[in-house]
Q: What sequence folds into this?
């Protein structure tokens, strides 16, 4: 287990009430999600600015640095300090980050909501990733995941306009649930939580409400997770990367419906999934 860095436990409002008029001129109050700019400083060097709802800023930054391969171990980090008064986070390392200029010189704007950014050629490291071939998911576990997401309390149900990502055990038990303005932020926050808890991904299931783009698939692979679910679809490059690293992609996961696109050997079909008898409404599409 790596030694943990010093972390702030920052808190800020996640939603705001606003007054609106409907098509009949009637006034009402609704909630909308907050969105904040959070500028990241790595050893006093400005790295980038992320747009975030602000729910899990410390985990978000840790996961971002991990998924970008800028920081390889928690032992390298001394502190992560978030200050919402100036909308900034200061990350301090013990020894500095070698070749930081070269490693951050190339930026790629991704298809993530709000335009995600990745540094360098993450695709160059994909060839080194090999996900566990013996990982399995049962049909009933898949339905448990979908049912959990459907019923879980969320900012989306209150205010909309956010994406959610979640991590589940192999049998469909919820481990982490994170919402943010972009799915790339939510997956990074979960990566940060896994890092802090020294949790491995080889026997886990990852769910996202957003598309399974190459960025999402690469990040899932870097987290060691062999099964990705989405209520949306996938892109051609996302599909190609999943095939390459040995990841099973499930898209259009709504109700009883799903589409398995890659590595079907992981799915264990069941003639009558146990959850069908427990919750018949689950299978209404």
A:
């Amino acid at each position: 287990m790596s030694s943990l860095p010093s972390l702030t436990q920052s808190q800020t409002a996640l939603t705001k009430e606003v007054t609106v008029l409907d098509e009949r001129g009637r006034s009402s109050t609704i909630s909308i999600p907050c969105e904040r700019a959070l500028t990241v400083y790595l050893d006093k060097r400005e790295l980038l600015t992320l747009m975030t709802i602000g729910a899990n800023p410390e985990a978000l930054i840790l996961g971002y640095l991990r998924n970008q391969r800028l920081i390889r171990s928690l032992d390298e980090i001394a502190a992560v300090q978030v200050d919402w008064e100036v909308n900034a986070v200061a990350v301090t390392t013990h020894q500095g980050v070698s070749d930081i200029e070269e490693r951050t010189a190339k930026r790629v704007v991704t298809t993530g909501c709000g335009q995600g950014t990745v540094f360098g050629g993450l695709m160059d490291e994909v060839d080194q990733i090999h996900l566990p071939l013996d990982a399995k998911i049962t049909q009933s576990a898949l339905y448990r995941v979908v049912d959990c997401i459907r019923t879980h309390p969320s900012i989306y149900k209150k205010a909309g306009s956010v994406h959610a990502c979640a991590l589940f055990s192999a049998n469909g038990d919820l481990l982490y649930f994170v919402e943010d303005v972009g799915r790339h932020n939510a997956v990074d926050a979960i990566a940060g939580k896994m890092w802090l808890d020294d949790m491995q991904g080889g026997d886990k299931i990852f769910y996202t409400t957003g598309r399974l783009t190459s960025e999402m698939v690469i990040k899932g692979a870097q987290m060691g997770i062999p099964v990705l679910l989405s209520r949306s679809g996938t892109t051609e490059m996302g599909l190609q990367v999943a095939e390459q690293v040995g990841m099973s992609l499930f898209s259009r996961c709504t109700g009883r419906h799903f589409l398995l696109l890659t590595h079907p050997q992981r799915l264990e079909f069941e003639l009558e999934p146990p959850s069908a008898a427990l919750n018949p409404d689950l299978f209404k599409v």
